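Lab notebook, bench 4. Still working through the backlog of constructs that have no structural model yet. Next entry is a single chain of 213 residues. Request: give me the structure tokens for it.
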Amino acid sequence: MEIDELGQIYQNILACAITWRENQSALIQAIHSSTLYVIHGVGEASLEPVIKALDEEDSGVQLDYSRSEIGSAVQELFDSEFLVLSGIFTKLFSDLNGRYFAGRLEVHRVIVMHAAPEAKLTSNLARVDEKLREIILVYDGWPEEMVSLLIDTMAHIAAGSDAESGWQEELVRLYELGAPARQRVEELDDAVEWPCERARCCAPEDRLGWQLH
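Model written out:
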């Protein structure tokens, strides 16, 4: 996959996330930002750390909403699916399946959540429900991480019962094909400024910027 194509995929993911955010209330926008802050810090968001981050980052929220209202809104966001991104990543699964796996993987729906406990089994393996044929991803504002997590997870599915050596063999094969697996993305980090959702003060066009150094 060429770097320009990757950049377009990442920009599309962020554009959809930013459009979603702009249509939310001030409270949900603040919770969204604090959730990303916690995820970036400890890898997984939970109720109390997000409320603490809200206290530190956006004192105005505490004046406009009760503690109970804030807690309910945080939990509601955690329990909700990021539907527009689920559609994008489910389509991406199909595209990657055809391009790198000759379409041999069973169809899976990719569910993107705002938060989910133990969504990652390891740094490059997402939780998969093989009975329901679902892959769980959490939106973290870093599209390159999410895409590499998806394709590394697809490699694990392709390995089947041979999950140890077979997974590593699949990852090597994908790397040699130029797929956006984690190893490839990590190597490109020094040469490419990937788009990411930065602080709320940044304009959308700034957050969508990416370029070769």
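Notes after review: Strands lie at 109-113, 120-122, 125-129, 134-138, 192-193, 211-212. Residues 36 and 140 are 6 Å apart (CA to CA). Flag for follow-up if needed.
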